[in-house]
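Extended Data, panel c. Modelled sequence:
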Amino acid sequence: MKNQGKLIAKGERNGRMFTLDVNMPKVNSMLFTHGKGPGDIGIWHKRVGHVNLQRLKLMEKHNLVGGLPKFGTEEVMSEVCETCQLGKQTKHPFPAQTTHVSSKPLEMIHLDVWTTKTKSIGGCKYYVNFIDDHTRKVWVYFMKHKGEMF
């Protein structure tokens, strides 16, 4: 990366990934973060795996993380961490057994209409799948237009 003709960072390509060399003389990891600065507790919360504030302050107290700044005893995060909130959401599991199981083929059919981002060679962008509840046999039909379903 260059800024006003001066090299500010360099990286290496490893397959499909680029790694940034943050050990260059004028580069440090804080250059590429957003926040209030080196002591932003929200940045450090994300850097060390979204640990809670008590754990982060414990890490700072026992000097467990290199470069971790000193936080005040009343330090709090300025905003709620969306990633942590999403991680706390739970879903109920699917029931182990279904309430209705068909007793013969074609008694109950499940279907879904799907779309793809790119068209197939034949020009189809949609497909519908039919699943027989009893046999679990699946049929898939490709469509150029969603309206072909009706």
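The chain has two domains: 2-88, 91-150. This feature is highlighted in the accompanying rendering.
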